[in-house]
Inverse folding.
């Protein structure tokens, strides 16, 4: 039997997890319920919704990241361009973290292992580009060149590696309830991370790919 993490792990009333910033955080069903009462789930979801499928959440975030890249490309004002880039960098960093800390470990299986290893390598490449861009002025010609490259890498990773190849396998591995439980926890962590400018952690994550559990 593959060493895949069961959905019950995400429904525990109280358990501790060390989050991406090295802080102890409790992501329980009760904690998630409080988050849902306090703020909207997502720009495309209403307050009355109680769950979100993990795959749907990731697809929405992929689309939002691509949309932000387009806005950066079209920005003519340097201050606005910098603000858009920081929003993009924060959301991309938080998205990568919830995949590496929650999504990838949960869906690790003999049938997904190769794709997940490739995904962490692609994350590493994107993080290195993002770290380079953070050190540049947005008016630097190398910034725009790196933006083009990172756009191509993200599109390949999100659309081809994940949505076309990985997600169908995950849908066969996890039932709807399991994906909803996982999606809730991923969203809770994502929103918590966004409050702490997660882009600032990226330069420290460029040495090696994120670790994955054994199958």
């Amino acid at each position: 039997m593959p060493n895949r993490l069961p959905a019950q792990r995400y429904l525990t009333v109280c358990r501790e997890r060390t989050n991406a910033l090295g802080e102890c955080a409790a992501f329980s069903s009760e904690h998630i319920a409080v988050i849902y009462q306090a703020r909207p789930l997502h720009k495309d979801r209403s307050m009355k919704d109680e769950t979100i499928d993990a795959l749907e959440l990731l697809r929405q975030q992929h689309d939002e990241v691509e949309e932000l890249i387009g806005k950066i490309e079209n920005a003519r004002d340097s201050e606005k361009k910098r603000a858009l880039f920081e929003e993009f960098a924060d959301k991309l960093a938080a998205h990568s973290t919830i995949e590496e800390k929650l999504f990838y470990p949960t869906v690790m299986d003999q049938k997904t292992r190769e794709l997940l290893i490739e995904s962490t390598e692609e994350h590493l490449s994107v993080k290195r580009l993002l770290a380079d861009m953070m050190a540049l002025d947005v008016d630097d010609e190398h910034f725009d060149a790196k933006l083009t490259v990172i756009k191509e890498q993200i599109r390949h990773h999100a659309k081809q590696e994940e949505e076309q190849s990985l997600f169908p396998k995950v849908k066969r591995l996890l039932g709807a309830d399991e994906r909803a439980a996982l999606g809730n926890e991923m969203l809770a962590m994502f929103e918590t991370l966004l409050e702490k400018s997660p882009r600032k952690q990226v330069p420290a994550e460029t040495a090696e790919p994120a670790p994955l559990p054994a199958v």
About this structure: The chain has a mean pLDDT of 84.
